[in-house]
Amino acid sequence: MKKSLWLLAIGGFLLLTAVSVPAQAQFYLGARGGLSNENASTSQIHFDRNSAFLYGAQVGVKFLGFAVEGQYFHANHTLLSGDLPAGAEQKLDYDYFGVNAKLGIPLAIIYPYITGGYGWYSVDLPGLFKDSTGAINVGAGAEVTLGKIGIFGELRYTDFSISFDNTDWDFGGVDLHFGLNIHF
Asked: What is the per-residue burial (b if ≥16 Cβ within 10 Å, else e) of 17-33?
């Protein structure tokens, strides 16, 4: 009898905990913009490039200090110098599609956090190659929330490489993201 009472008490506690989770979880949608500062180099060539505007979107769920979000963003870079192979354009298109986790301190209005994630980085050097690879990224940021609207800023570091035609191409750098989330 005593064992059954304990099992009933533990089951009731777990049920109450499970029922209260959706009330505390927040679903959100958002848009992002910023500056992409990707490097592009091989062992023979290092390109100077301009910083480019990045744009994209995210969808996520936040529970207390932990959040998980799916993200997409795109940037178009112009390669300013470097010895490009014949037929290649002075352009670098860069896409990210992945999942990032955030761990932070949920204060009354501000949510400072660290972030890390994994996703697919797609690189297109027109006239030369287009390829994708999976890689991780890390960063830090903060979101200020007033009501259902959140405004965030984030610095993110990425480093990955793609092999093409027996040449390893290294990409990566620090990106600055900012944007708007609508919490439901």
From this structure: eeeeeeeeebebebebe
Q: Rounded to an integer, what is the distance from CA 64 to the centroid of its chain?
A: 20
Which sequence spans correspond to the domains of the chain? 25-183
For the stretch 82-127, pLDDT in tens is: 566 666 677 778 899 999 999 999 888 999 999 999 999 988 878 7
H helix runs in 1-120, sequence order: 2-24
CA distance linking residue 115 with residue 68, whole number of Å: 9
Q: Any idea which residue has 């750098």 for tokens? A: 173
List the one residue out of 93, 102, 97, 179 whose CA is nearest residue 138. Answer: 102
CATH topology of domain 25-183: Porin (2.40.160)
Helix, strand and coil content of the chain, in percent to the nearest 5, comes to 10, 70, 20
Give the residue among 176, 128, 133 at the shortest CA–CA distance from 152. 176
Enter the pTM of the model.
0.78
Measure the CA–CA gap between 63 and 25, rounded to whole angstroms: 5
